[in-house]
TrEMBL record, chain B:
Residues 91-218 form the Right handed beta helix domain. Residues 1-22 form the signal peptide. Keywords: Signal. This is Right handed beta helix domain-containing protein. The keyword Signal applies. It comes from Nitratireductor mangrovi. SUPFAM superfamilies: Pectin lyase-like. InterPro entries: Beta_helix, PbH1, Pectin_lyas_fold, Pectin_lyase_fold/virulence, SO_2930-like_dom. The keyword Signal applies. Residues 389-411 are annotated as: Disordered. Pfam families: Beta_helix.
Amino acid sequence: MGIARLAAALLVSVTLCAALVVPALAVSDAAILAERPPKLLSEFGFFEDSRTQKPAEGVVPFAINTPLFSDNALKFRFVYLPEGKAARYDPQEAFAFPAGAALIKTFAFPADMREPDKDVRLIETRVLIRHEDGWQAWAYLWDEAQQDAVLKIAGAKVDIELGGIAPEPVRFTYSVPNKNQCKGCHAFNGEIAPLGPKARNLNGEFAYADGAANQLEHWSAAGILQGAPAPRDAPAVPAWGDEAAPLEARARAWLDVNCAHCHRREGPASNSGLFLTYGEDDPVALGIGKRPVAAGRGSGGREFDIKPGDPDGSILLYRIESTEPGVMMPELGRGLPQPDAGKLLRDWIATLR
Amino acid sequence: MRAIFRAAAGLAVSLALTAAVAAAELRVEPDDDANEKLIEALILAQPGDTVLIAAGRYELTDGLSLDVDDVTVRGEGTDRTVLSFKGQTGAGEGLLVTSDRVVLEDFAVEDTRGDGVKSKGSDQITFRNLRVEWTGGPKAENGAYGVYPVSSKNVLIEGVLVRGASDAGIYVGQSEDIVVRNSRAEFNVAGIEIENSFRADVYKNVATRNTGGILVFDLPNLPVQGGHDIRVFDNDVVDNDTPNFAPEGNIVAIVPKGMGIMVMANRNVHVFNNRLSGNATTHVLIAAYPEDYEDDDYLFVPRGVYVHDNEYGEGGGEPDGEVGKTISDVSGTPVPDIVWDGVTTIPEYFSWVSAENRIYVDEPDGTTFVNLKMISQLLLPWSTSPDTDISGYKGSLPEPAPVKLPQDGGA
C-alpha cells in the first residue's frame, strides 16, 4: 500500500516541481507563505545573483557581532520582510517578526581561509520563514554548478577541503542539518525561533552598498524594525575576537552565541542547569563551581563545569575543545575545533577567582 | 554528485508521505540508504503513524530524532532490528524524542557515542521491549545513559534491557509520573536511577552486575528538584559487582561496587518487598548528598524513607571505595544490610525530626542495620558510636498511591 501511495505522490510532486521552476526576479511572498516549502531555493527569489549572493530588492544583508562557529564556514545573512511590515524590537530576545518574514543564511567555504573572497563554494542556504503559526526551518543544498539549491529535509553530508587553517589543507565532512536538527538549536520553549537577530548582536556597523551604518539604525530607517532605541541605548556584545574589548565580555558573548541557544532555561539543554546566556548572573548556573549532571564521559574526569582559575580543570573547555561525538559541544553543527575560542575561554577562566 | 539526485528522489518520497492523511505505516528496510530514509521517516511521520523499522542491522552515522506527536516507532524485535551507532559522527544520542504520546518498541540501539535513547520534554512516552547496549562491555568510553527520559511526564519503561552505560542504564531525570517495570539493567554503573523526579514506581525489575543496582537521587542546582513519592518494590537487586567505571566528576562515580539500593536526599521513598543479595558494599544505603554545593533551595538530607519487608541474602562483605571505607570504618565488616549515614541538618541535630521526615526500618528478624550518625555534608565522622539497634527505627509512613499513566493499559 505504502509503495503505491509513494509512486502516486512522486508523480504529483515531480509535476508540481516542474510547474514551479520559473526564474524569480523578486521575492515571492507566496513561496514564503506556502504550506510546503519550494523544492528549489530560487523559487523564493531572495537573490538577484545567487552566485555572488547579491540580494534581491527588499532583502537586507546583515552581520552579527559575534557569530556561531560552524567549522569556519563563511556566512551570508539576509533578512526579508513583506512590504509595509516590520519586526518589533526586543532588548533581550530575537525580534518579533511578522508572518511572511524570512531570515536567510548561506554557508560557504573558500578554498583557502586566508583568501576568503576567492574560490568560494556555496554549500547550503538555511531559510527560517515566519508563518502565522510559527517559524519553519529548511535547509537547501547547493548544486555543484552553483546554479541553485535543493531542499534537503533529511540533511546532507558534504566533504570539504579547506586550506589556510593548518599547514596542510584540512579535509572534513560538513553536516547540513536535517529538519529536527534545525530545531535542536532553534528551539525556544519547544517552538522554533531565530537566534542571531538580537539587539545585542546586531548593534554594530555594517558596510552597506551605500556606506557603513549601524544596523539597528539602518533597519529602523528601512522600515523593517519598529521600536528600536538609539544604538547607544541598546545592548551590544563585542566581536569575540576584538582584543580591544574586555575579556569577560568577549568570552560571555562567545558562550551566548555558541552555547546559550540550548543552555538556557527555555532551551533544549534546560535540564542541565547550565545557563550561558549573556545576561545570566547566577555564577553556579553559569557553571562556576557547578558539578555536571548528565555529562557522562563528557566530563573528561573534571569535577566542575568551570573551575575558577583552572581551565584544564573545567569541563566546559574539555567539551569545547573536543571533536568527538558524545563529548564535544555543541553536539551539532561542528566537526572542527576553534582553537582561538578555546584560548579566549582559557584566558577568561584563568582570571576567575 | 550522486547524492543530490538521491536527495531529489528522497524529497519526492517525503512529499508523498506528508500528503497522507490517514494514519499510515512507514516501513524502512535496511538497504543502502536506510540512514537517510530513517531520518526522513521520523521527520515526515504524521500523528497517528507508525514507523516500522524492518528486521536487519542498520549501521547509522548520525543520530535520529522524532519531533512529531502520536507516533509509534517499532522494530521487529530487539535481536532482529538493530540500530548500530558504532560509526556515529554526530549528535549527542542515538535517538532523541521531543514530542508527546510516543511509543518506542521492539528494537535495539547499540554503541551510541553519547546516550542511547533520550526523550526531552515528552508527555506520555513509552519505552517498551528495547535493548540498549554497549557491546564492548563496561567501559568508561561508553555513553552515559541507556534509556534517558528527562524533563518528561507520564513515562513508561517496561521490558527494557540496558547493558554497559557508563552512568545509568535506565535513567529518569527531572520527570514526573514514572513507571519502570519488568526491565533488566546489568553491567552499568548505576542500573536504574530516578533523579530529581516525582511519583515513580519501580517494580519487578532485575538490577544485577552493575556497580550499584537502583539509585534514587536528588541533586542541587537543577531546574527540577525536591524529588518525592517514590516506590521501589518487588525488584531483584543481586550481585552488583562491576567496578565503578564512570568518568570522574560524575556523581555516580562515588557509588561503590556492590551497592544494592541507594536513596539520597529524596523525600518519601518506600523500599519494600525487594530481594537483595550478593551486594558486597551494602544492600540498602540511605544517605545525604555528600558534596558541597551552593543552592538555597536544595535539601541535602533524605526525608521520610520507609524500608520494610525486603529479603536479604549475603552482602556487605567487601565494602568498596571511599564510601565503602567510610561506612565500614564505623560499622565494621561485614557491613549491615541497611545503612543510614545519620546525617541531619544542624538545627534538627540539636532538636528533633518530625515524624513524616524520619527514617523508618521494619524488616524481618535477623536483618542488620546501622545508623552511622555522621553529621556533615562531607561524610566526616561526627560520632564514633553508631547505632545498630534496628528496633529503634520501627514505624511506618503512608504509602504513596500507585502511579497511573494515561498510556498504560495495566500492569
